[in-house]
Amino acid sequence: MKKVGRPAHSEIRQNIVEILAYMGEGYAYSIYKIYREVFPPVTMRSIYYHLKKGLTLGEFKVTRTEKERGDYSWGGEAEKIYYTLGTCASPKQMPRIKDVFVGKANALPDDRNPLSQPPHDA
Fold first, then answer.
1. Which pLDDT score is estimated for 119?
2. CA pair distance 19, 30, nearest whole angstrom
3. Rounded to the nearest 5°, which phi and psi values hold at 84?
4. Which of 113, 93, 111, 112 minimizes the C-alpha distance to 103?
5. pLDDT single digits (tens) 45-77
6. How far apart are CA 93 and CA 33, in angstroms?
7. Is 86 strand, coil or helix?
8. What are the structural domains of the chain?
9. From the CB of residue 64, how many other CB atoms can be counted at a distance below 10 Å?
10. In 3D, which of 22, 79, 4 has the Cα closest to residue 48?
11. How many whole angstroms separate alpha carbon 44 and alpha carbon 27?
12. What is the pLDDT of residues 3-26, one digit of tens each?
């Protein structure tokens, strides 16, 4: 008998897993900016949805939350929730995502840039 309902797998969520596999850690908007460079455009709301859904599935986990003061259209403070890969994530190491990070190697601090880390067997 055929299963009824939405499948648990999502191409958008898998793409976010691939991005976080190279980023190590990121908040929704930073993930969104890279996503739009590499994959077909999605809405910011879709990124938020898939991050939240990924939390419930164990594909992502929250590492920290920061409040940032500024002059935003919605008020004087923004909350950044930082995500990393969870235990149920299975990245496939897409080369086209690596190419984006190689081009932006200086955009991430060395301690969070996976491309600047020595190999595990070194």
1. 45
2. 10
3. -140, 175
4. 113
5. 999 999 999 999 999 999 999 999 988 888 899
6. 19
7. coil
8. 11-108 (1.10.10.10)
9. 11
10. 79
11. 12
12. 777 777 889 999 999 999 988 999
